[in-house]
Amino acid sequence: MNITITATTDNPALLPAQHQTHQPGEEAAMVPRPRSEPLGAPPGIGKLEGKVVLITGGDSGIGHAVALLFAREGASLALGYLDEEADAHRTRDEVEQAGAECILLRGDVGSPRFCREAVAAVIARYGKIDVLINNAAQQYPQENILDISEQQLEKTFRTNIFSMFYMVQAALPHLARGARIINTTSVTAYRGSAHLLDYAATKGAIVAFTRSLAQQLVKSGVHVNAVAPGPVWTPLIPASFPAEEVSQFGAQVPMKRPGQPDEIAPCYLFLATEGAAYMSGQVLHPNGGEIINT
Fold this sequence. Notes:
There is one protein chain. The chain is an alpha/beta fold. The protein has one domain: NAD(P)-binding Rossmann-like Domain (Rossmann fold), CATH 3.40.50. The protein is built from eight helices and nine strands. A seven-stranded parallel sheet has the order 5-4-3-6-7-8-9, with helices on both faces. Strand 6 (131-134), helix 4 and strand 7 form a beta-alpha-beta unit. Helix 1 (61-72) packs parallel to helix 2 (85-97) and helix 3 (112-126) packs parallel to helix 4. The longest helix has 22 residues, at 150-171. The protein is globular and about 45 Å long. Belongs to the short-chain dehydrogenases/reductases (SDR) family. Residues 1-32 are annotated as: Disordered. Keywords: Oxidoreductase. It comes from Herbaspirillum lusitanum.
């Protein structure tokens, strides 16, 4: 992988200019590394004791932080990832150090076959799925719609939204009453993004998917919600943007900085627990203070 890092920005809340050439990027190459350890020093209190959680894109970024937080709360984990072996194995090691079980599932969530095989592997290991977190995504900036190729358009939609259909179709027969589906959308679903047109379109689709699936599954007792992060320091950022854009990433939100994965993960924990028992079809917005139309 080709990685470049240059001098840090003058604003200490922002990030050094850097770039990676491979999507969805590697956390191990980022400077500084994203913060993923659960916020707060006290150990967990077993909020997810006995629960089995499947996270796509679980090797790094938000997925990594969610895995560590859920492990601290007693969950057993299954982490899907594309090809980032170092990140995936590091996350598994950290989950196991927290005292939780963890299996890795390598493959492309844009493939219906992989989604079926991943769910089958989780059932074979743990016998059930209590929480499904659809988190995997990719993005390819283009300044002009004319520059979005057919191949890019299909890849973005296949990875970001088709995968959610495939994973839910595979997992649903194994989801009992009280199970949770949590989808990762984005602030771009609400305010748009001129240079991430296809990505933002998929994130808008995820909001509609979440609300519609929640209505469809409410009688079965399966809760469906989503999280719409704002700018968050994950491998997708240096893998998507030129180095100088990375150095200004997050400066536009009221808090004037990007979020860290450990600041986003608690939203997923809330939606996975009994605290969200009266919520379905809803979206949480950890976005640095940006007010958006929900």
